Amino acid sequence: MPRTSLPTRLAATAAFLLAASALSAPTASAKPSDAAPGDAYTLTVSTNPTSTDYDNRRVDVTGTVTKADGTPAPNIPVTIQEVVRFTTWNPWGDPIDPTYYEPRDLGKPVSDANGKFTIPDVDIDHVTGSSLLNVQHEVQITALYDEDGDLNTPQDGYYADTTVAANAKSSSVTYKVNKKKVKAGDILTVQGKVTLPKGVEPRAPRSSCRPTGSRSTT
What we know:
The chain is mainly β. It contains 1 helix and 10 strands; from the N terminus they run H-E-E-E-E-E-E-E-E-E-E. A 5-stranded mixed β-sheet has the order 2-8-7-4-5. The two termini are 26 Å apart. Residues 1-6, 11-33 and 214-218 have low confidence and may be disordered.
C-alpha cells in the first residue's frame, strides 16, 4: 500500500482547492487574469531542460509567485520536491491508489524582488534503497506555498507541478516456464534472459516472479 507522503497530501489538497475554485493553475507567465476569484497568489514551476537521459540528468527548477493583480510577490518561501512515481502491482483490482509516490525534498527557495525562485542543478535521480520495479519515466516536480504553514487548512494553499521526462536506456526481460498447467506439489522451472544496453555491465541482477490468476488456500 502507498505510504502517506507529502506529495499524496499535496495532491489531495490540490484536488480540494480545484473543486473550491481556490487554486491557481500553473502557467507560463503571470497575469492578473491567471488568478482564480479569491486567490491571493499565483504559483508556477517549470524546469530547464524538460527531459533527461542517463548521461544528462540535471535540470534547473524555476518558478514565480505573483499577487492576484499580477505583480511580483517577493519573500515567499516555496517548498519544492521531486517525486519519483511507480505503478503499483494490483492484479486483484483492490480499490487503492494505482500510483506509489516516493518524494525527495529539494529545498525551500524564497522568491526574489521579481517574484522568481530557482534551484539549479537538480539531479533527476532515484536516491533511496527501494526497488525500481514499475517506475514511471516521468518524474514530478511539485511546488507548494501555504500561507499559514498548515496543510490541514488548504483554503490558503497554492500548488503547482510539472514533469520531467526520464528517457531510459533500452533493456528487456524475457522468460518461459516448462508447464502451462500444474497441480498441487508440481515444481515449475522458469528460464529467462535479461538484455542490457551496449556497454552496460550487469551488477548483481535480481529477478522476481509473481503468480497471477485465482488464489486458493488449502
